[in-house]
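User: Teach me something about this protein's shape.
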Amino acid sequence: MINQKPALLEELLELFSGFESYRSPYAPTVQPPEEVVESLIQNACFKSSLVSATCSLPPGPLGILSILPELILLYRIQGHLVLDIAALHGKEAQVTKDLLLYCLFKHGSAHLFRKIIEESSFRVLVRPTTMKFFQTLLEKIGLMISRTIIRKQFARWVPILGAVFTGGFAFYDTRKVGYTAHDLFQKELETT
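Assistant: First, the predicted structure itself:
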């Protein structure tokens, strides 16, 4: 088995492959979409905060079992937010897995994306990635997710305080994702 991918890597690929079938209910706006984007970000923040806080309520081992479903739900909410914001800017068709990962994880590790995405004030240059580089990127993101799981694991032992902590963190994280997507899709996207 020379080219066998690790199980976590396959799960990450599977998680992000579901977004191709999602069609945003939003269309490009004639006016600047700031007001609609702000309300989308707020709604997604509240949803992700509620999901995270609710999944953090079961104590101990039962709470630990809820970490992976919680992360999957959070990334789905955030991924749909990114696609909705892209649709409002008329760029839903240009969203690739690279751009989706960039929006989801840029605020935590911008250095991972320097080889793929180069931003200027009005334009974003997106370089195509090889499968090997994409796998390496996903492995590094997998390590970040593992650290998140470990951090959330400790919050599960103190249910009420853990729920407040993880709910607040999910709110903040989703807000960062939304603003990253809004900043990205305001610019002209150019692929090489």
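Now, about its shape. Confidence is low (pLDDT under 50) at residues 1-5. Helices lie at 7-17, 34-55, 60-65, 67-88, 97-105, 131-155, 159-186. If you'd like, I can walk through any region in more detail.
User: That's plenty for now, thanks!
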